[in-house]
Amino acid sequence: MMKRLRENQALFEERQLFGIRKLKLGVASVAIATAFSLGTVSGQITAAAESLTSVEPIDGAVMVKSEAADHDSKELPEATDISDIAGISDVTKVSAAVNADTVKEVQPVAVPLVEDQAQAEATDQSQPSSSIVPVTTDSSLETPEATSSEEPIAEQTLRLHFKTLPAQDLSSLGLWVWDDVETPSDQLGGWPTGATNFSLAKTDDYGYYMDVKLSAEQAHKVSFLINNTKGDNITGDRTVELISPKVNEVWIDGQELSYYPPLAQGYIRINYYRSDGHYDNKSLWLWGSADASMTSQQGAWPDGIDFKQVGRYGAYIDVKLADFNELGFLLLDERQTGDAVKIQPNDYIFKDLKNHTQIFLKDEDPTIYTNPYFVNHVRLIGAKQVSPSSIEASFTTLADVDKESLLKELKISTDSKEAVAITDITLDEKTHKAVITGDFSQAVATYTVTFHHESFQARPNWQYKDSLYAYDGELGARVREAGAKVDLTIWSPSADKVSLVLYDKADQTKVIGNLALAKGDKGEWSITLSADSGLGISDYRGYFYHYEITRNGKSVLVLDPYAKSLAAWNSELAKTDPSYKVAKAAIVDPAAIGDKELAFADIKGFHKREDAIIYEAHVRDFTSDQAIANDLKAQFGTFAAFVEKLDYLKELGITHVQLLPVMSYYFVNELANKERMLTYSSSDNNYNWGYDPQSYFALTGMYSTDPTDPAKRIEEFKQLVNEIHKRGMGVILDVVYNHTANVDIFEDLEPNYYHFMNADGTARTSFGGGRLGTTHYMSRRVLVDSITYLVDEYKVDGFRFDMMGDHDAAAIEKAFLAAKALNPNIIMLGEGWVTYQGDEHMPEQPADQSWMSQTDTVASFSDDFRNQLKSGFPNEGSPAFITGGARDIMTIFHNIKAQPTNFLADDPGDVIQYIAAHDNLTLFDIIAQSIKKDPSVAANAAEIHRRLRLGNLLVLTSQGTPFLHAGQEYGRTKQFKDEAYKGKVADDKVPNKSHLLVNEDGTPFEYPYFIHDSYDSTDAINHFDWAKATDTERYPESTTSQAFTKGLIALRRSTDAFRLASKAEIDQKVKLITVPNEHGIKAQDLVIAYQTTASNGDVYAVFVNADSNDRTIRLTGEFQALLAGEVIVDAKQAGTEALASPEGVVLTKDGVKLSGLTATIIRLRASQSDKGTLGAMTDQAAHHQEKLVAAQTAGEVSQFSSKTLPKTGTSQLDSLLALAGSGILAGLGGLVSKSKRR
């Protein structure tokens, strides 16, 4: 059965997952900003428990009850290492002067947010904001003993202690982790579902805590944040620098982060560790900021305050402070006399009393440490060679570090330990990096950077390789002379040897040749196959090949990343032999295959991106319905079969067919694509959505009628594109450049290059594969060359970028320009969730929602529109506008205008308006979940359909670009209707990726399980149900919804009123009728009405009643003229023709009365309009618009002042100011416009 990317990571322990049963790869596009329920990071973050001892003040200082005997009568047990007491690593001795200016400390103990970090994000305005809830703790001073563990901390684990959490409902909070952890949260379901739910946390007297499993290799830092089920980044990004291998717990109190349990303000604990374990007659002499209650305990010199208490860090004294200026003290050995009484002859001076409540001393070391690991605060944490003359070193901090002192301590050496002279150093305190200049040009040398006792190899990184080996020549296999000659080129500058392994065209397991390639100046390796190659082949087309790359004595077989087709692929064999690890490339000449007349689409009425109506479909799903088996001539589930059902889409009226990924993906057995899967199952099936890419140039064989023929898939896909074009529609490809299925796919080609990199030069990963580093020259070439090839060869008309926010904006922009140069009507969209990681410490403008105000090339999906109308993860199923949850009317109106409230869209084409996609529950199923009504009851199904029609109407009458999921028009469901699953089943039988749906009384539906992410489900679950879409007799409600949606599409395409070209035009022509707090309309309500004016003067007024009760919308002022218009949409019908007897719609003398769950559209033609009424606003209408402008402006300001994007990054202050301003401009009727590039 099929294996998945994370199967080997042991991440699937049975845990509560908010209705999500398992986390498996499948949907790399699981929307990070789409609202997932917070899940458990199985196998990585575990909960533990601790208990605390009581604390009490002793003699004016707060001391801990201790079992230790009085120092006058007994010695403490001898210890040879501090780990005997505290479990701490080997002590690192650091010498320094002891005045306050040279104190060594871990900076900062109070860890600030990353620069420009978003502030704690507000909750949805429709819900009350939660307050910070302190954990109940002892009112006296917290101490180390007060956090002794009931359960020991496991090896390679970091325990995070939280004094407070930002909500009372722990189940609404999650811990999101990344960097040097065993499994980052983003590999476990996307944002925010990969987070571990705080309901699993345990408590001690300090607060809550969670355990995080560290990576197997030496960990240097762990980053984390607390998010909520809505996808808000509440705390902002936090980072724990693992300053010692023995760091295994930290304490967090708000923005303060400590390596020790913090004490109450006004105290400081002086910990003293002696390696000999002898603390008798050892004491402390205080002055400065010490409170009088402390100094009064001192007798005549040298009778200091004795070390009576012992803790995890040695003996200690808690010092009460009088102020936070400067504490002076000496360590004394009262057995000595004269100056020898001073254990350390110089005064200890500590000034940073506001930021620290414990300090640490050891033996005779003059250094005051602010961590119990006795580690200097400036540490080397990584190095990489960026050019022949520069090495970049990363440090924990460079605060207060000067160039001269760093030069004294920093060393560079070769493999042979030969020192290399440093000519200069440039420090960047913001990024914690130092660029070291010198002669590092020895080709065979690997340079080592050493600072104090830490060393790192400086691997040549992507910048180094770009500076020397950036290559612009041709890559891949190019066929000439009808296959008689083939030129092949691959780029791998670090390879010692590259060979071509050629396999027989009739048997991909049979090697028929092994030929060496020649290396070029830019790291490219080339060979030309011909009759002279000694293989006895006159036509190389159809033969298969790998490249064998030898590097440092090791060889690997790799896939040509530019291969245009592949041998049949079966991932089940991947681990059986090295030759099956990746697919074999095929030698093909795509230009000579398939339809020679293929051209770009000519779509009627499509002149700008707002004119598009996008329909998302999966190739297999569209024809896998067993009911149409006898109607198909071609094999079901293929490109060829898809062609046979295209007339349905033409008649539906959409402009673009968006295909889920069709490029080669990894986890599938293409040879079994003919096998139907008619039983209900949601795991371990030969099915895939395709978000685990193996190749960016070669099509998958899964949708070919003959996967063994590398030319057939090309031929059949070209036929599909051509047939779509013939019907006046375009083709959009869903592409997945953000990550690969397996990190080795590119790492084997050229290590430490193709992916975004960590500071230590290792690849950054996502969903088990590498994050393609599109800022790197050759990696960007892969993306741009792939886009260019697909447009040029297959004449496609657009692209949808999976996890687009993972890319830098410049790469996407370059791809757009390259595609547009070939196809002027290209359209691009993507998931603009704020997920960019890039190269560590190298920020770029991501291609996310924050970019939408800077570009008009690519659009982003609007999660705000989706969540307002129907809800989404992590609150999927909670009531939203079309499911009975009153929502803020101004927020919905902004979204209808393609002006979402969570990012700035300065052009309507920036916004993809959608409420359903392949991810998550279908629209029909989410409505059923939200209203808690089993669709097996006819009345319930009818209600679900009425709500579904409201949703589809809002999508298709909103500004921006509408997007529909296949089957959304008829009410597609992914219900698990297996007889064995009637009613609730045992936990170990629950289907993978399922939600359990219940009625209002809490009883389960008849078939209660619904699959929310069906990327590994059978045809029984995933098929497009043709009977529901077309059989009016058997499925009257479904076909009514289908016809209703079809009519709305026709209406949208008949006028430009719903697809205006600019924000200024929208602000002028789209007006809200239902102004909050007027005529019975509440600020949060279930009705909305608005009108829009077409360029020809026709006015369209949209009225939506999502209330179950009848509602009347009063029309005043200019809107009274609408009563003279014609009704073209009612509860069951939609289109462009007037309805003689509209159902559920009554026009009264002063308004519109709508039955429950009913919408209508009134068209007032320009020829009908009363110029006196519509040409100039009456005083009443003017007053109405003034109130609307005030509401818009106030709404925008309040929304943007209280929330930021769902991201782990920068503040959105600029967006706040920009949107507040845009609201004012909107009120001025669009007097200010902006010239935009299209």
Automatic annotation (TrEMBL):
<dbReference type="InterPro" id="IPR004193">
    <property type="entry name" value="Glyco_hydro_13_N"/>
</dbReference>
<dbReference type="InterPro" id="IPR040806">
    <property type="entry name" value="SpuA_C"/>
</dbReference>
<dbReference type="Pfam" id="PF04650">
    <property type="entry name" value="YSIRK_signal"/>
</dbReference>
<dbReference type="Pfam" id="PF18033">
    <property type="entry name" value="SpuA_C"/>
</dbReference>
<feature type="region of interest" description="Disordered">
    <location>
        <begin position="118"/>
        <end position="152"/>
    </location>
</feature>
<dbReference type="InterPro" id="IPR013780">
    <property type="entry name" value="Glyco_hydro_b"/>
</dbReference>
<dbReference type="Pfam" id="PF03714">
    <property type="entry name" value="PUD"/>
</dbReference>
<keyword id="KW-0378">Hydrolase</keyword>
<dbReference type="GO" id="GO:0030246">
    <property type="term" value="F:carbohydrate binding"/>
</dbReference>
<keyword id="KW-0106">Calcium</keyword>
<dbReference type="InterPro" id="IPR013784">
    <property type="entry name" value="Carb-bd-like_fold"/>
</dbReference>
<protein>
    <recommendedName>
        <fullName>pullulanase</fullName>
        <ecNumber>3.2.1.41</ecNumber>
    </recommendedName>
</protein>
<keyword id="KW-0134">Cell wall</keyword>
<dbReference type="InterPro" id="IPR017853">
    <property type="entry name" value="GH"/>
</dbReference>
<dbReference type="InterPro" id="IPR005323">
    <property type="entry name" value="CBM41_pullulanase"/>
</dbReference>
<feature type="compositionally biased region" description="Polar residues">
    <location>
        <begin position="120"/>
        <end position="150"/>
    </location>
</feature>
<keyword id="KW-0964">Secreted</keyword>
<dbReference type="GO" id="GO:0051060">
    <property type="term" value="F:pullulanase activity"/>
</dbReference>
<dbReference type="InterPro" id="IPR006047">
    <property type="entry name" value="GH13_cat_dom"/>
</dbReference>
<dbReference type="InterPro" id="IPR014756">
    <property type="entry name" value="Ig_E-set"/>
</dbReference>
<feature type="domain" description="Gram-positive cocci surface proteins LPxTG">
    <location>
        <begin position="1205"/>
        <end position="1238"/>
    </location>
</feature>
<keyword id="KW-0732">Signal</keyword>
<dbReference type="InterPro" id="IPR005877">
    <property type="entry name" value="YSIRK_signal_dom"/>
</dbReference>
<keyword id="KW-0326">Glycosidase</keyword>
<dbReference type="InterPro" id="IPR011838">
    <property type="entry name" value="Pullulan_Gpos"/>
</dbReference>
<dbReference type="GO" id="GO:0005975">
    <property type="term" value="P:carbohydrate metabolic process"/>
</dbReference>
<dbReference type="Pfam" id="PF00128">
    <property type="entry name" value="Alpha-amylase"/>
</dbReference>
<dbReference type="InterPro" id="IPR014755">
    <property type="entry name" value="Cu-Rt/internalin_Ig-like"/>
</dbReference>
<dbReference type="InterPro" id="IPR019931">
    <property type="entry name" value="LPXTG_anchor"/>
</dbReference>
<dbReference type="Pfam" id="PF02922">
    <property type="entry name" value="CBM_48"/>
</dbReference>
<keyword id="KW-0572">Peptidoglycan-anchor</keyword>
<comment type="similarity">
    <text>Belongs to the glycosyl hydrolase 13 family.</text>
</comment>
<dbReference type="Pfam" id="PF00746">
    <property type="entry name" value="Gram_pos_anchor"/>
</dbReference>
<dbReference type="InterPro" id="IPR013783">
    <property type="entry name" value="Ig-like_fold"/>
</dbReference>
